[in-house]
Amino acid sequence: MPHDSSVQSYACVIVLSPEGRIQAISDNPPTGLGADAGALIGEPASRLFSEATLQRINATKTNGAPHPIPLTAGEPVDWNGWQCLPRRRPQGLLLEIEPRSADRSQVFVPELTLRDFNDAIEATTTTQQLLQTVCNRLGTLFGFGRAVVFEVDQEANGFVSTEYNDGSFPLLHGVHYRPEDFADTGHDLYATESVLNVITQPGGPVRMIGDVGGFEDVIRQCIGCRLPHPLIYAFMEELEIKTILSLALYNHGELWGFIFGHAHDTIHLDYQLRTFIHLVGSLTSQALTYRESDQAHRHWLASDHLRARMRENIARATTVVEGLQQADPSLLDVVPNTGGAAILLENQFVTLGATPTAEQVLDLLAWAGKVVDSQAIYTHAHLEAVYPPAANFTDTASGIMLVPLNTRCTDWIAWFRPEFVEEVTYGSLNPEAQPDEGSRFQLTAEVRRGYSLPWTAVDLDAARNLQSYIRDVVMEKYSQLSRVNHQLQMAYEEMQSFSYTVSHDLRAPLRGIDGFAEIFIEDYGAKIDAQGQALIHTIQQNAARMNQYIADILELSRVGRTRLTVENCSVYDLVRTTMEALNADQPAPVEVNLEENMPLIRGDAQLLGVVFHHLLSNAIKYSPSTRPPEITVGFRRSNEFGDGEFFVADKGIGIPPLHQDRVFGMFNRLVTQHDYAGHGVGLAIVRSIIIRHGGQIRIESQVGRGATFLFYTDPHELREIKTN
Amino acid sequence: MYTNQILLAEDDTTDAEFFRRALSRLDSPPELVWCKNGVEALEGLATYSETASLPRLAILDIKMPGMSGLEVLEKLKSDARTKDMPVIIMSSSDEPQDIARAYDYGANGYLVKPSRFQDLRELVGSINYFWIKTNRLRPASS
């Protein structure tokens, strides 16, 4: 913005200090003064205004709308019948002195004309009719040869949607304008006043001489003769327009667009007429808002059943993602005119319809996570303008609507709109075309690429509705999960202490059975025959079996109760130690093949030793007896980050796929007790230890081809369970 | 000189009988005084007028109705008359925290109840041997 304030030259602007002296004045003082602007600085206002006028000026209230003061014959200088519009601020007074528009009170009675406008507006049934009516009337009433509606979209592209034209101008209907053509920095000129009258004058704008002292904003944004955006002058010159009337229109309080009136002659709209036009604009904006609201509401009601069915699908499914993936209705029905959609939720990634590749979508969502506010919905109809990689997938996603589902912006629903190729007429040359001086605003036909159909308020409402529902459902499931987790934790702890208590309580009667059978043999064995002794031995054997079961249960319950000492352990050491102990009971020492370059395994060394003990003991036990066991221990990498699984593989009898889940259960054995010794709780202990370490264990096996047990520990997930 | 008695506090009849039989297999076994719970054990011990006549060893089970073995242990160790009497805790639990707690309360030994009679006999034998031999030595100040 220029440092020194300037104004349009058809009016005169004066700043008065609180003491009533001229502090600043535009460089076009009234003729017949006999002095130029500079000489007036510091002079009292009485040089320019009569006592009576000054009184009225001083009576101006702060921050109100100006009350016009006609400047008639009794003034010290000849103001030519102009009027004074005073504005008071704490720092002084600003006076705008402008000519009156030609008296047309014969044809133009403001109250009646306004009422006509109002009736006409109310009679229209569509937005298109509304805008056409307003354009026609403004054009004819004030003598503008062309009046257009200029709609501005989210990305600051402009579009002429409606036109009144008396034939004296070329048609502009359907022409697009680029964001650079009517820069949105110009939009804040309409922040306080919705009407601007721009008249080209020879000599151009005039500067303010003197110190405007705090009135810069008023000069820039409020007064009638404020300057437009510089490009407007270029536009007017190229297209031979002498006067522009611009009227800003609002929808729901947001800038929606403008009505522009163009004239070949000079048309001055004074304060009274501008106020009238402002009222027309206000009526139009309200009607616009109402009509759009109404249309959106009707559409909303019509599609309500769709959303209700979608919510039902989600509520009934086991996961939210499953519910969203249903075909009836699909996400592409909830937001129409979309070609594809993607869901990233609960660690699942799913696409529907035509979308960019998974990798492209995930990259896009990662970018979005950094730029999108978690409370908002992000739309764009020309994605490559803000996200260059989108140039690679304009066919599927020229337009996107991104809906964050959580506060961290890591869960999303995305809708994609494909490219909508159309030939578009722009009202200006392509910026890459290097226009010569004075030829920027030529009509240019271009094939517009990389744009999708625009996103409407209706689309956003539908998305928002779904977003809030999903957030509620996810929150509910999360708190349900938390509750279930908590219950599970408590049940687990109860089971731990139950196992412990029961095992110890079971041991007492066992001592009674086993111990006393022993005493009986000692004291009375000589007195009974071999058959009798065999019977006693049967009692003792079963008691011993019971004791072993109890010992196994105790060992399993101990896995959950002991405190973990977590460290990085060498698999080589663990296997060697285990094999030393196991080989002590073997007829011939068993060799285990250890692969090279195995990483360290993280966890409690003692419990991990138990894992290897059971896995290796099983591997030996279930190997065919005809040849030495072939056992391999190694690590299978799954990605370049070091993730993977350790494995213990044997070439034994194998486990049928159907039974692979069951082997981890307690006391589940797939072979008879006589063929293979042991009780079958070993694998339950192994799995319990692995789960305690935050990992998983699984089997790859086929009957007759051996079994491979694969497992990993996750140090980040290690769960500490409090011991009593 | 302590009397040739061993006090056993054990609520389970089978366990007590098991112990009694193991003890009886020793050469010149000590006399077994059996109390069915902690309160009975304390009341029983109160009837001994002099420290010198107390049983030479008390064996306490932990889990008993009313007063637990550890509570009895605590009372014994805080009473001047009985604090020097050796106490062994005998329990079915082999959990490290139970063992540590018993020693915290002042136990002189902790033994896990064996399920095999043979093992119990060996255990009783070694207890008897140790405490008889050591108790032949008078404490320096009595």
Automatic annotation (TrEMBL), chain A:
Residues 501-717 form the Histidine kinase domain. Keywords: Chromophore, Kinase, Phosphoprotein, Photoreceptor protein, Receptor, Sensory transduction, Transferase. It catalyses: ATP + protein L-histidine = ADP + protein N-phospho-L-histidine. CDD domains: HisKA (cd00082). It holds the Pfam family PAS_2. One of its GO terms (biological process) is osmosensory signaling via phosphorelay pathway. In the N-terminal section; belongs to the phytochrome family. This is histidine kinase. It comes from Neolewinella marina.
TrEMBL record, chain B:
Residues 5-128 form the Response regulatory domain. The modification 4-aspartylphosphate is found at residue 61. It holds the Pfam family Response_reg. This is Two-component system response regulator. GO terms for biological process: phosphorelay signal transduction system. It comes from the Bacteria. PROSITE patterns: RESPONSE_REGULATORY. It comes from Neolewinella marina. The keyword Phosphoprotein applies. Keywords: Phosphoprotein.
